[in-house]
Amino acid sequence: MSARRGSARQAWVALRALLLMTVALGIVFPLAITAIAQLAFPAQANGSLVRSDGRVVGSALIEQSFTTAKGVALPQWFQSRPSAAGAGYDGRASGGSNAGPESHSLLTAIAARRAAIEKSDGVTADRIPADALTASASGLDPDISPAYALLQVPRVAAARGLSESAVRALVESRIQGRELGYLGEPVVNVLELNIALAALK
Amino acid sequence: MGAQLWLFAAQLGTVILVLAVAYRPLGDYMAFAYASPRHLRVERGFYRLIGVDPSSEQSWPAYVRAVLAFSTAGIVLLYALQRVQELLPWSLGLGPVNEALAFNTAVSFVTNTNWQSYSPEATLGFTVQFAGLAVQNFLSAAVGIAVAVALVRAFAARHSSTIGNFWVDVTRGTLRILLPLAAIAAVLLVAGGVVQNLDGFHTVTTLSGATQEIPGGPVASQEAIKIVGTNGGGYFNANSAHPFENPLPWTSMLQIILMLVIPFALPRTFGRLVNDNRQGYAIAAVMATFFVVSSTVMTLLELGGSGSAPRLAGAALEGKELRFGIVGSTLYGTSSTLTSTGAVNSMHDSYTALGGGMAMINMMLGEVAPGGVGSGLYGMLVIAVIAVFIAGLMVGRTPEYLGKKIRAREMTLASLYILTTPALVLAGTALSFAIPGVQADVTGTSIANPGLHGFSEVLYAFTSAANNNGSAFAGLTANTPWLNTALGVAMMLGRFLPIVFVLALAGSLAQQDPVPVTAGTLPTHRVQFGGLLIGTVVLVSALTYFPALALGPLAEGLLHS
């Protein structure tokens, strides 16, 4: 068999193999996994949606903003990390700032965020943790550090007319330690914290 | 920093422990999968439908033709699917992808690179994702392992004119190895919170009264093979940093293990197939040495947090997810850049200058420690051929590896192999700044961080493309005619030229009768050879890339340390 005829035959074999594999791996496999997922883990498979007052308010895994439309922090809510997803917290445009370590725009942004928190929370710059000043990789990071959550307690309590000790106790009850003691970092899920906060009377 | 280092040690220890436990059973299973004379019933039906006799063996040129025919068909189909996207079901109202981007993406997924010039949420509907991209996640991985197995067979062969049957190898790799692992991984990921549904975006009114769109899609099924097949192309733009791709610290650890498990077990498969398990241990030990050193260095650099922005913020957390922390980010970043996966759970562009430089160095090692599925093993075996040649020169003997003589033809092919990728990386980067019109486009449109860091973005892009990694300094806008085309060409040549050289090498090794082991034979399973192999890997990459690194990450890191 000549090399040329061999190649033509191989191309025909390749095409048939590819189409059959597409049916098996590209259609049957994802649909089978979807069926298993929907039967075994429907809550997770559909986005870990969470409710407040019976209404779906978002996903426990996806960060949302607690600001005015113009981006000014609402004092009565715990604030999430800064977000570079689209114009901020955009579920259609996940991503980070991708600003390098010497980026002027990043330096300006960090300084502005720091000044805003110093003003809103009345704290000195050295008490502000890094997660409050930096945008995450996805722009949808649902968590903040316990330090950043605790820092916000006096402001939130004052804005809601609640006692600081009650709000602090709520935050402390919501701190999740490292998985198995050594995976990840201690975090507080902001949306779940705020849902619990809204229920606090 | 001390506590963080303990966390790192514990996490690294977990990875090594799991890989060590999986090494023998998975490696032996894969050896059995490729060597077994029996065909499963479903496989026999498949061979009949595609018109292949599974008992026939191919010469190396026939094997090459089959690889190229299969990959070309993959590129054409994936290109076509993107171009007619608006006609497909579940397109989510998204239109056709433009020519340059569709070419880049088709090449990217068929070459196991999974470079993404596009933002998936805004570009691709469900059908292109699962019937196009996810299929190539399986098949490109299976092709890589098939080529590695063909090379290993050639080392074990005696006076043979054939190196196996590509169609059998690719089918078995897909059905017996990748599919079961991906199915298990997908279910575990859903349990952790990765979404798997056929809904589009879901608009909700948030707690504070704003609106937000929550994405949906068949993510877990694609995520699983993206990781297991060392592909790395994200369902979402943020890749494995997206909470719907990688929701928890343990899912991140699972992904790290899954992207390493096949590449680290393949040396065992190699040892089994050449009937000397010690050879497999030697290769695995060399790979593990690089992994431990590299992940430690990157972690120290990121924890150190040098550079203006990390110092101002107090830590290098820009572009990192809090639930993974710095340690969980660097361990993932190292695993992903050393395996040619290219998935990211943090944004490498925002790393410290030297930390980001480590990600580049990992890829510049040639993706051999442990490298992509299959491609890592064949890359390391080619470098082993070079290492025994160097050793042979030192003592004045004809070099041999596993009883096969390394003669002029074998050395020529090995040299061509190791020259291909650096030539593509350096030429691509240089041309981006040397062609007048292109330079204006690259510096004006593509680069996000001007100056030294901008050079690093371009160097990273070509390093990633030519080594078939797929990660990025993602600030770079690569969706331009020049970068889509140049990176597409780099990915294609960076994948298929080395495969042709490897298969030609396999053909010439298979033909030889093994020479008997004598007192003068260099033992290739001892520490001495391991050291020589490590030295050769470093030598081949360090000398080639040092000047380019000096212009980018090294200069930036030293200026602002």
From TrEMBL, chain A:
Q: How does it assemble?
A: The system is composed of three essential subunits: KdpA, KdpB and KdpC.
Short name of one Pfam family: KdpC
Identify the coding gene.
Answer: kdpC
The keyword ATP-binding is assigned to this record:
yes
Q: Outline what the protein does.
A: Part of the high-affinity ATP-driven potassium transport (or Kdp) system, which catalyzes the hydrolysis of ATP coupled with the electrogenic transport of potassium into the cytoplasm. This subunit acts as a catalytic chaperone that increases the ATP-binding affinity of the ATP-hydrolyzing subunit KdpB by the formation of a transient KdpB/KdpC/ATP ternary complex.
Question: Which key words tag this protein in UniProt?
Answer: ATP-binding, Cell membrane, Ion transport, Membrane, Nucleotide-binding, Potassium, Potassium transport, Transmembrane, Transmembrane helix, Transport
Q: Name one GO cellular component term.
A: plasma membrane
Domain of life here? Answer: Bacteria
Protein name as catalogued: Potassium-transporting ATPase KdpC subunit
Membrane topology reported for the UniProt record: Single-pass membrane protein
Primary localization: membrane
What does the similarity note say? Belongs to the KdpC family.
A GO molecular-function descriptor: P-type potassium transmembrane transporter activity
Q: Where in the cell is it found?
A: Cell membrane
From the record, give the transmembrane residue ranges. Answer: 12-41
Quick check: keyword Transferase in the entry? no
Q: Which HAMAP family match?
A: KdpC
UniProtKB/TrEMBL annotation, chain B:
Residues crossing the lipid bilayer are 62-81, 88-110, 130-156, 177-195, 248-267, 279-301, 377-395, 416-435, 486-510, 531-555
Annotated localization: Cell membrane
Q: Name one Pfam family in it.
A: KdpA
User: Among the entry's GO cellular component annotations, what is one?
Assistant: plasma membrane
Q: What does this protein do?
A: Part of the high-affinity ATP-driven potassium transport (or Kdp) system, which catalyzes the hydrolysis of ATP coupled with the electrogenic transport of potassium into the cytoplasm. This subunit binds the extracellular potassium ions and delivers the ions to the membrane domain of KdpB through an intramembrane tunnel.
Quaternary structure annotation from Swiss-Prot or TrEMBL: The system is composed of three essential subunits: KdpA, KdpB and KdpC.
- Name of the protein described by the UniProt record: Potassium-transporting ATPase potassium-binding subunit
Q: What organism is this sequence from?
A: Galbitalea soli
Keyword field: Cell membrane, Ion transport, Membrane, Potassium, Potassium transport, Transmembrane, Transmembrane helix, Transport
**Recorded family membership:** Belongs to the KdpA family.
Q: What is the lineage of its organism?
A: Bacteria, Bacillati, Actinomycetota, Actinomycetes, Micrococcales
* Molecular function terms, GO-annotated: P-type potassium transmembrane transporter activity; potassium ion binding
Q: Give the source's domain of life in one word.
A: Bacteria
Give the record's membrane topology.
Multi-pass membrane protein
Name the InterPro entries for this protein.
Answer: KdpA (IPR004623)
